[in-house]
DNA sequence: AATTAATGTCAGTCATCAGTGACTGTCACA
DNA sequence: TGTGACAGTCACTGATGACTGACATTAATT
């Protein structure tokens, strides 16, 4: 039972930490609260993590969404603009939504998470490069009009990033709206703009 | 010199508070730091504001970007799609940039700012309604194609919201890019998508 | 039955921080 | 010259929060 149970406890504590810190920030939450929420004593928390800071870092490391983002590119590209953009957007929003708590924390805790900001920025960066290449290729295939593919990629990304952040922050604008509906509209606009 | 100087002191303290809290959050900054940065003693801070919480609220109230957003609609609409969208975007980004510190704080400090979230959401809401009406009117004039104007407005807004947030957070994606360049590309895409 | 790993309890340390109270200094102005 | 408005200093308090050490408990393992 040793390492399994041990891991289980650590996981529960990390989950509790993520939950609470996403709502109230690193400094807004006490180690006691985290432990209680996880169903353990504060002492146990400190037996598993050598400090509060270390707990946050561990939690981040453990639940990092790094890898998923990459898979997004490896999916089936059909070279049909609408289909591909829909697929990419859906996956993007799914990943952003799954990782919303980590994203909230990361936005907030620049100071407390050394070298973390960069890892948050790494994946959009990759996505931007992938999209840029995709648009270039589509242009070469004569499927889209010629403009600057890098700029198109950035606009596309920010459009979805904005919506993803709105969703994370419970923006009332999205209340009347499903995210699926947003995706459809945005892709329609994009498709229509780029189709020759 | 009474109330002028008094206001001046209070202002300096509020400015210092905004500066520091935008970087490190409410709980990440001490009243002493704020006072020192403002060039006063901690005592003076508490003579002007009855608590740290009250200081934050006052600062927010004072520098609230509420009003500016509305002016954005009252500007010259030319009923030329490209021109109007450029004007709106430029103003939007200008206001967002001017108020970046308050925006950062507001995103972070949901818990500490009672009823603040709603006031942050109010203006985009207004903007969304204005844009919706604008798109409807443009459709009636036969200047744009028929789709759902509300959805168009939301997509337009989030596109710029995303970029504005990226700019605030120093997203490296925007490094190679001026915001003006983003605006141009995004409006080109939008214009091309909506033009009959 | 003895051992061990994981957790709990309790009492306590140490540092920090919001906020206060008493008193002083300074300048404007009447 | 005296009063009022504003800021400073200093020495506190009271609370909180991260983190520790000693010892007890529980339950599974051998």
Automatic annotation (TrEMBL), chains A, B:
This is Transcriptional regulator, TetR family. It comes from Gracilibacillus orientalis. Keywords: DNA-binding. It comes from the Bacteria. PANTHER family: HTH-TYPE TRANSCRIPTIONAL REGULATOR PKSA, HTH-TYPE TRANSCRIPTIONAL REGULATOR RUTR. InterPro entries: Homeodomain-like_sf, HTH-type_TetR-like_transc_reg, HTH_TetR, Tet_transcr_reg_TetR-rel_C_sf. It holds the Pfam family TetR_N. SUPFAM superfamilies: Homeodomain-like, Tetracyclin repressor-like, C-terminal domain. Residues 30-49 bind DNA. The lineage of its organism: Bacteria, Bacillati, Bacillota, Bacilli, Bacillales. Residues 7-67 form the HTH tetR-type domain. The keyword Repressor does not apply. The keyword Endoplasmic reticulum does not apply. GO terms for molecular function: DNA-binding transcription factor activity; transcription cis-regulatory region binding.
